[in-house]
UniProtKB/TrEMBL annotation:
Keywords: Methyltransferase, S-adenosyl-L-methionine, Transferase. SUPFAM superfamilies: S-adenosyl-L-methionine-dependent methyltransferases, Winged helix' DNA-binding domain. One of its GO terms (biological process) is methylation. It comes from Hoeflea olei. PROSITE patterns: SAM_OMT_II. This is Uncharacterized protein. Residues 171-356 form the O-methyltransferase C-terminal domain. Coiled coil: none annotated.
Length: 376
């Protein structure tokens, strides 16, 4: 019988460290050391935040759903004057304000006027963040029994029903209402992501960009605004492409982008684009589907052209990467399709699809995206 390899020295060292940290007397000893006291307190606060994270997210949801943050947008408002817009009694309102102030969403002044704190101001100013906060009500229902979710014992999750067509890449049985829900949410949550991608990669060097899985065109609109001379187009399922056409017909762009409808797995993609983008597309799909998609993209490209993959990617190099890995990994698990991949895993799939030159480029925020730039 072959001997199974044992853990390496790093794993053994971490196991030893975990045993020490688990001992109450060790933790008390560390807390008494001057040079580690602040670190110990920070670790304690992080653990408490982890344990109580759901409560904090529900406080945030309540401030959005009751209209509290919206009511504070114009400026300071007396507590009594927030009763009507929020629909809460003054006693319940003060409890919500106390909780919201504790997690730095609002500030209740000594004058009994309430203003937005920095975090609250960001949430209220960004409709994409608010859309995701409201959308999380579905995800939290799927997470009410996380063990069942990880066992895969209930495939009919709320997110799976919502994104029923997203994992297939096919036109089959695509409900226009589902397409509208999907596209609107993706569009609203795209603005910060687009800025991150545009700052990390200069699309102005290209002549024509095709965004595959481009939704209602939020990303190509941002690209066109940054680079007016760049021709842009998108490819998505027919109901989604039709929504994009309607949006562009009513929008501010002087040149209406071409919106191609079809399946990015089964239909040939438009040719003649020296740049193709996949923005938050791959992590919706399993490896076999990603490989088919990348092969279809490669078939539409010539040497010298560029594929830019942009999405949150797994990793442990920074706090942003760790948060992104945990969140998006569980999100696609509940959705029932896809996974959060490391950049090297995406490179491996792209290489198998026929790409041969790669560059991994971080964005400012790893929470938003990392770029994998591939060339045939």
């Amino acid at each position: 019988m072959p001997v199974k390899p044992g853990p390496d020295w790093r794993s053994r060292l971490q196991a030893w460290r975990a045993r020490q940290v688990a001992r109450p007397e060790f933790r008390r000893f560390v807390q008494r050391l001057p040079f580690s006291r602040s670190y110990s307190k920070a670790q304690e606060a992080d653990l408490f935040s982890l344990v109580t994270g759901f409560v904090q997210s529900q406080i945030l949801f309540a401030t959005v759903e009751t209209g509290l943050l919206q009511a504070l947008e114009p400026g300071p408002v007396a507590v009594a004057d927030l009763v009507r817009p929020t629909g809460l009694s003054e006693d319940r309102l003060r409890r919500l304000l106390q909780a919201a102030q504790a997690i730095r969403l609002v500030i209740v002044g000594r004058d009994d006027f309430v203003t937005l704190a920095d975090q609250g101001a960001v949430v209220q100013s960004d409709r994409g963040i608010r859309a995701m906060i409201r959308h999380h009500a579905l995800m939290y229902r799927d997470l009410s029994d996380p063990v069942t979710l990880f066992k895969g014992a209930n495939p009919e999750t709320e997110l799976h029903r919502l994104w029923a067509y997203a994992g297939s890449g096919r036109e089959t049985s695509v409900d226009p209402g589902a397409a509208a829900t999907y596209s609107t949410l993706m569009s609203h949550s795209q603005s910060m992501l687009s800025d991150e991608i545009l700052d990390a990669y200069d699309f102005g060097r290209h002549r024509h960009l095709l965004d595959v899985g481009g939704g209602e065109g939020a990303f190509i609109s941002a690209v066109a605004a940054r680079h007016p001379s760049l021709a842009v187009s998108l490819f998505d399922l027919p109901p989604v492409a039709e929504r994009a056409r309607q949006r562009f017909a009513e929008g501010p762009l002087t040149r209406c982008p071409r919106c191609h409808g079809g399946s990015f797995l089964d239909d040939p993609l438009p040719r003649g684009n020296d740049c193709v983008t996949l923005v938050r597309v791959l992590f919706d799909h399993e490896d076999s589907v990603v490989l088919r998609l990348l092969r279809n993209v490669r078939a539409a490209m010539e040497p010298g052209q560029v594929l830019v993959v942009a999405e949150p990617m797994a990793g442990a190099d920074s706090r942003g990467q760790r948060l992104s890995t945990a969140y998006f990994g569980v999100y696609v698990l509940a959705m029932g399709s896809g996974r959060c991949r490391t950049p090297s895993e995406i490179v491996s799939l792209a290489r198998a699809a026929g790409f041969s030159s790669f560059e991994i480029r971080p964005c400012r925020s790893a929470l938003m995206a990392t770029l994998v730039i591939a060339r045939p």
